[in-house]
Amino acid sequence: MILGLSLDTFTFLHVVASLIGIMTGFVLVALMLHSAPLAGWNGFFLVSTAWTSISGFLFPTPMLVAAHVLGAISLVALAAASLAIYGRRLAGRWRSTYVVGALVALYLNTFVCIVQLFDKFAYLNRLAPTATELPYVLAQVVVLVVFIVAGVAAVRRYRPLP
Question: Quick one: three-class SS letters along 90-143?
């Protein structure tokens, strides 16, 4: 039991929050690339992605694992993004801080999603059973490159109205 929920139910809610964070994060990136208002998408992204990272710490594990480190980094990135948008209203360099923080958190969530896809889906697991094989590495490298390109473009293009 975690927070009064069965492990299966808690895992389901964790995965749903993660997928909501990823989907709303992609919407945010598209909005940033078009310098469009973020409206409520930002709140959904920040809350669902933060819950994904926080809930990840609640799973029973005997020791610190890589997912805990990624979760901690994600929470720092989300804190910076939240401060930038809500505390500093994206003034000056805080605009770039928001974009980078949001994209780092989204990338980490997407990275873990790919890890889980290769671990949980038999077809993908057969292609990369140890997560060191070429299909897995290519998937992660392609996603990283896409995020770097999108991040650089978003930092350059995102100019919200005051």
Answer: CCCCHHHHHHHHHHHHHHHHHHHHHHHHHHHCHHHHHHCCCCCCHHHHHHHHHH
Residue range 113-157, pLDDT digits in tens: 999 999 999 999 999 999 999 999 999 999 999 999 999 999 999
Q: Phi and psi at residue 2, in whole multiples of 5°?
A: -130, 125
Tell me the pLDDT tens digit for each residue of 33-62.
999 999 889 999 999 999 999 999 999 998
pLDDT of residue 162: 64
Q: In the chain, where are the structural domains located?
A: 7-157
Residues 6+ apart with CB under 8 A from 54: 71, 75
Cβ neighbour number for residue 11 with a 10 Å cutoff: 14
Q: Report the alpha-carbon distance of residue 134 to residue 153 in Å, rounded.
A: 28
User: How many Å apart are CA 136 and CA 96, to the nearest integer?
Assistant: 31
| Nearby residues of 16 by Cβ (< 8 Å), 6 or more positions away | none
How far apart are the C-alpha atoms of 15 and 47, rounded to whole Å? 14
